């Protein structure tokens, strides 16, 4: 948490740009964090103490208050899920009680954007606990997923996959799945045992399958009862 002096009269979120107006050059830069956001919306639907931003400006610098950093995605905890009726146009730390995102995500595109050096240093200086780099095509000849944790002021890469992040209570890793009709490798949230959490679409299909199974069981029970009546010499159709 960062403390801000109210006498600085810093600009509000409504007065600040909501992004850096830099267009993404790969649709995965939006789809990957949007999928993570949707899964959290299902997983944490009973919680009101989190916010996941996608391609949204983070304002933290009082000396240059109109300068934003814009990760592809970020997660903040212990903040209101809904900050105002119209939602957050951007994430302004002096309006969030100085609460930093606990995780930032960068999705590497074909045009390298400093994810492994300049952006890493910036998030490190800001003291964001977890930094996740996802390279869907491994364009930089590095591992496709790298997860870093801030340890004594420096980022250190965490081993394994999915990577468990205890302070968040989630793991993150890759798996093949379908999102918006596109079957490919995506980033997903995982539980501590390494089981992937379902997407909303998968969850709805699961619920529909359970409902169908329940209906089949009920129909089987009815048919067994009808057969018992027939065995007893009673025509079940005459009772309807």
Tell me what the structure shows.
This is Uma2 family endonuclease. The protein contains 3 helices and 12 strands. The chain has 240 residues and is of the alpha+beta class. The protein has 2 domains: 6-197, tt1808, chain A, CATH 3.90.1570; 208-239. The strands form 3 sheets. A 6-stranded mixed beta sheet has the order 1-4-6-7-8-9, with helices on both faces. Strands 3-2-5 form a 3-stranded mixed beta sheet, with no helix packed on it. The longest helix has 32 residues, at 200-231.
Key attributes of the depicted protein:
2 domains; three-stranded mixed sheet; tt1808, chain A; coiled coil; 3 helices; elongated; Uma2 family endonuclease; 240 residues; Uma2; hydrolase; alpha+beta; Nuclease_put_TT1808
Give a concise summary.
The chain has 240 residues and is of the alpha+beta class. The chain folds into 2 domains: 6-197, tt1808, chain A (Alpha-Beta Complex), CATH 3.90.1570; 208-239. The chain has 3 helices and 12 strands; from the N terminus they run αββββββαββββββα.
Query: Beta-strand percentage?
Result: 15-25%
What is the class of the largest domain in the CATH system? Answer: Alpha Beta
Largest sheet: 6 strands, mixed
Order of strands, widest sheet: 1-4-6-7-8-9
Please give the number of β-strands.
12
Give helix and strand order, one letter per element, not per position. HEEEEEEHEEEEEEH
Give the quaternary arrangement of the chains. Answer: single chain
